[in-house]
Design goal:
- By secondary structure, the protein is an alpha/beta fold.
- It starts with 6 loop residues before the first helix and ends with a helix.
């Protein structure tokens, strides 16, 4: 893959491996094992496999390797390890590098499963975790210690769309030698510059914008070649969280159109947020791409655009939110995001249901909050649908 290629070209051609048949579309190497020419060749490969040699699908596979190389080229990372899901990527990246006695600082605004990994699993094995308000740099400075091993945060939080300053937090973390691990799914690979801004490890749920069409679960961990192959790979290949070859092929097909889809989604998201801002039925519209948003300048500096998701807070609480959701005709009620279809979610009763009420309140997850993941439908049709649904709210 040429270093001179732009991201959209890399998304189509990066990491390609062609068999002797010269296929145009990437091949699915749907095999769990590989044959060796001799016993000596098998021995040599188990001692040290070459860059295009494979042992077992849990360790690596040609189709999976194509996906890893392609997404790494888009992200600007040295290497990548593909996983069975986004949460396999989050837990794998953290568990692979941490041990009992280590200290981690994390933003408090996290997806429920991420919070479970940090609060319940890591602490169970002796890792100390300190939570902070991700937008408050003073809290990061106060929490990070000389023995802090890692920091973790969502670059754009779910569902209130609060940004964490990647460069500033990375500078604070690196001053004590801590590794910066970022869940970057809301920023998308299209608008990510996380590694250039200081992130050491970037994680995506490939289920979201990378596939972007509701077909498969997947995840990916990106970082330096040393971190991926010396820390992540030994852990992941033994615990069994690797991506299947078929899923990798689906993700390769998704990557080809990812930039086209995401840029269209962002354009529509901005138009909708701009139109809904100040609507009489809404207490607030959360979208960092709006010029009036308190983190607008950081959003422009860090992402350049506001992303594909809008959150709206309806006057009237849960009752109003449910009336709105049930009146939607184009947007579908589901708990996924980053899809070609527009998806509406009520976080307080679904994705963040298990959070105690005081934590929901602290994070701004109110009974009236609805998260809208904007798809690729016609902007005017979506606008009409959302406005008519708001009219149904008493």
């Amino acid at each position: 893959m040429s270093k001179d290629w732009n991201p959209r070209t890399r998304a189509v051609h990066g990491g390609s491996r062609r068999s002797q048949y010269g296929e145009l579309s990437e091949a699915i190497f749907l095999t769990q094992g590989f044959v060796y020419e001799s016993a000596e060749a098998a021995e040599a490969r188990f001692i040290e496999a070459g860059p295009d040699e494979f042992i077992y699908a849990r360790y690596g596979n040609p189709t999976v390797a194509m996906f890893e190389e392609r997404i790494a080229g888009i992200e600007g990372a040295e290497d990548a390890f593909a996983t069975a899901s986004g949460m396999a990527a989050v837990s794998g990246a953290l568990m692979a590098m941490l041990k009992a006695g280590d200290h981690v600082v994390s933003s408090r605004a996290l997806f429920g499963s991420c919070l479970y990994v940090l609060e319940e699993i890591l602490t169970r094995y002796g890792v100390e975790v300190t939570f902070v308000d991700g937008a408050d740099l003073d809290q990061w400075r106060a929490a990070i210690r000389p023995d802090t091993r890692a920091v973790f945060f969502e670059s754009l939080s779910n569902p209130t769309l609060e940004l964490v300053d990647i460069k500033a937090v990375s500078d604070i973390a690196h001053s004590v030698g801590a590794t910066v691990v970022i869940d970057n799914v809301f920023a998308t690979p299209v608008f990510s510059d996380a590694i250039a801004q200081g992130a050491d490890v970037v994680i995506y749920s490939a289920t979201k914008h990378i596939d972007g069409q509701g077909r498969a679960l997947g995840g990916v961990i990106l970082g330096t070649r040393e971190f991926i192959r010396k820390t992540v790979e030994p852990y992941m290949k033994h615990i069994g969280g690797s991506m299947s070859p078929f899923t990798a092929w689906v993700m390769l097909k998704g990557i080809e159109t990812m930039e086209l889809r995401v840029k269209a989604q962002v354009e529509t998201a901005f138009a909708l947020a701009d139109r809904l801002d100040g609507h009489k039925a809404l207490a607030r519209v959360l979208y960092p791409g709006l010029p009036g948003h308190r983190q607008y300048d950081l959003c422009q500096r860090q992402m350049g655009k506001g992303g594909t998701v809008i959150s709206i807070d309806l006057n009237g609480g849960q009752s109003a939110a449910f009336q709105f959701l049930n009146a939607l005709q184009i947007a579908k009620i589901s708990n996924n995001l980053g899809d070609a279809k527009t998806i509406a979610t009520h976080p307080a009763t679904t994705t963040h249901q298990r959070l105690p009420d005081d934590q929901k309140a602290a994070l701004g997850i109110t009974p009236g909050l609805v998260r809208l993941s904007i798809g690729i439908e016609d902007t005017d049709d979506l606008m009409t649908d959302i406005l008519q649904a708001l009219e149904h709210v008493n």
